[in-house]
Amino acid sequence: MSEPQPVEYDYRVEQIEGSLPAGLAGTLYRNGPGRWEDHTGRPLHHLFDGDGMVSAFTLAAGQVHYRNRYVRTRHFRGKSGTRHLGTAATGGWLANVGRIPPNLANTNIVEHAGHLYALWEGGPPHEIDPVTLETRGVRRFGGRLRWMGSYSAHPSFCPRSGEMFNFGVEFIPRPHLRIYRTDVRGRLEHFRSARLPYLAMVHDFALTQRYLVFLVSPIIPDAMPIALGLTPLGDAMHYRPERGSVFILVPRDGGPIRRVECDAVLQFHLSNAYDDRGDVVVDAITYADGRLLGRIARFHTSSLSDAPSEFSRFRISAAGRVSREQLSDTPCEFPRHHGGYQGMAHRYAYVSSRRRLGSFYDSIAKLDLIDRSEASYTAEAAGNSFCEPVFTPRPDATAEDDGWLLTVEYQAAEHTSRLVIIDARDVGAGPVATAALKHHLPQGFHGSFSPGRAD
Ligand SMILES: [Fe+2]
Q: Which residues are recorded as binding Fe cation (predicted)?
């Protein structure tokens, strides 16, 4: 599942089971680390330290075409430093002091205003050719993405305006969120900045019709050992629940920023959020404690499966009170929903989840957030696992769940991967079609579906 894949492929997938849905045409793009070594062959230990490898599954005319390419970052080309999140550069502290990890472009891939971007939260996007997957270069949007150029891997799209919102964590002169808005023509502008209570890892945010919603978890680096080059960054990140959390609500209309403090919450991914009269409702995948951080830092030798998560809902009242409710105790990650319902009261969330104890994400689940029920499909063979389920609606659909979930299943016994397509109305029925690759893919992080790309 996390074996590297050094080969770049380009072929028509022969082994298709079931029938590809007639209305499903376009490309599923996926991104994730493909190899965990630097250009000298030195192994890297942190899950996040692998070079970004982009995959494209193109569905057109009843066929599936597969292609993958590494993003040609400076790191991939052997032209950047080798101090990584989880692995120090060789040469002791002198070789590490003042160095920041290289941009690996390995976390997400999204399309906006006709451009396809491979994203990594500590630096600017790499633009990717949507057909060939060749790397077109680093994009700073005409120089408007300044400073470190931090640009999170989780932009959010307004379904009404077509704008893409995103942010970067910057720490000079003080820790803050630098927030960007990109219009439908692809023009990026600095929208707002918001001070952070402490230097923290902020990975994701949510968008309502009124607010950008940030939930700051106290994942705090030990600044001194990092600055002195004594500790790899990944080993110096700690969960500090005594510091508490804060919701930062940034009004889209330019009004004053609201900050609402609450008990510490450990999360990486928010799901949807929406305004409910004066309240703001936001869903998140939350963890009970900080064990996950250590597991990720040493993923080759430790299991990710003993850091249980749950699906939680937070309500922030107009008076500044936060209430919390567990919507599902099924361990899960990688929440997705219908993009047309972004920022609106919605009914369904889709997640990778875990049914078998001790397994990785062996299931795809559909959570009904109104009935509080869930339906899931579990891989038939033990050891198999699914990545994030990407939802795409059926053309002309009116029901929220009328569409498909696209995910990639790693099949352990065969050591191969396959594209899995599930009808979102009936997740329990399992795949309506699968397309088996001739090889495996490392499971990767995030992706998106671009409809209608038939070439
Ligand atoms: Fe993420």
A: 154, 203, 269, 446
Kindly state the tokens that stand for 215: 């939930």
Q: What is the mean pLDDT of residues 376-383?
A: 94
State the DSSP H helix or E strand holding residue 201, giving kind and residue range, or none if neither.
Answer: none
CB atoms under 10 Å from CB of 192, counted, come to 17
50 CA distance to ligand 1 middle (Å): 15
341 vs 99: which has the higher pLDDT? 341
CATH superfamily assigned to domain 10-451:
YVTN repeat-like/Quinoprotein amine dehydrogenase (2.130.10.10)
HEC profile of 6-41: CCCCEEECCEEEECCCCCCCEEEEEEEEEECECCCC
Q: Is 154 assigned a ligand-binding role in the annotation?
A: yes
**What is the enclosing helix (H) or strand (E) of 113?**
none
Residue 446 counted as an annotated binding residue: yes
Q: Can you give the residue ranges of every domain in the chain? A: 10-451
- In angstroms, the CA 97 to CA 95 distance is 6
pLDDT of residue 358: 66
- Give the list of residues 6+ apart from residue 371 with CB closer than 8 angstroms, or none: none
Residue 338 marked in a binding site? no
CA of residue 406 to ligand 1 center, whole Å: 17
- Asked if 135 and 48 touch (Cβ cutoff 8 Å), the reply is no
Q: Is 269 annotated as a binding residue?
A: yes
